[in-house]
Specification:
alpha/beta, two-stranded antiparallel ribbon
Length: about 200
């Protein structure tokens, strides 16, 4: 790859290991930004919760101290495409904008973990893309180990993502690299750091 690469996205299907890859890079001293972390912080803001309540009235409770039920939102958006797009306008797109603004303040290569990169056509905002893929059953096992997750929740989330097993990444962005996460964390670490050093 070329030395002028400054912004690299990290993406992959649910349970693929993209968050682990991001943490590996962070631990190695690279600039990293997580859209998931930005989203979590957004859900703590009263103005955001009030906006969500207008679209998902049953998902936000309380009057003074607002509390959001993300499972309630998930049940709705993964079955209602219009609500899915509405949530994207409230959360997904603003989170991406925040991530890109943060990246502009950093020097050197910055890696941004973007769960819905191709789904919202964000790939062209990056100089390179690292795609983490993983065998389906390993992805399922990973997700089922998380709190409040089951096979139905996995299927709903996966249905809103691209088919990572058959998607042609080279046609999506010029500098795309696929890493298969099919071994230990140390094996993934070796692959990810080798990729970063090659940028």
């Amino acid at each position: 790859m070329q030395n002028n690469i400054k912004l690299c996205a990290i993406t992959g299907g649910i349970g693929s290991g993209k968050s682990t890859a991001t943490e590996i890079l962070k631990g190695a001293g690279y600039n990293t930004i997580s859209c998931d972390e930005i989203v979590r912080s957004m859900y703590e803001k009263r103005a955001v919760l009030r906006a969500i309540k207008k679209v998902f009235p049953t998902a936000v409770s309380g009057k003074i101290r607002l509390k959001v039920d993300k499972i309630d939102i998930a049940r709705t958006v993964f079955c209602d495409h219009d609500k899915y797009l509405a949530l994207a306008e409230l959360i997904t797109k603003p989170a991406m904008e925040i991530a890109l603004k943060k990246a502009k303040k950093l020097k050197g290569i910055t890696f941004i973990e973007v769960p819905l990169l191709y789904e919202f056509n964000y790939e062209h905002k990056f100089d390179a893309v690292l795609v983490i893929t993983r065998p389906l059953q390993d992805r399922i096992d990973c997700v089922l180990s998380r709190p409040n997750m089951n096979k139905e929740q996995f299927d709903l989330r996966a249905s809103c993502q691209i088919d990572y097993d058959n998607f042609c990444f080279d046609h999506a962005v010029k500098n795309s690299t696929v890493i298969v996460n099919d071994g230990t964390i140390n094996a993934l670490k070796e692959k990810v750091l080798a990729f970063a050093k090659g940028l």
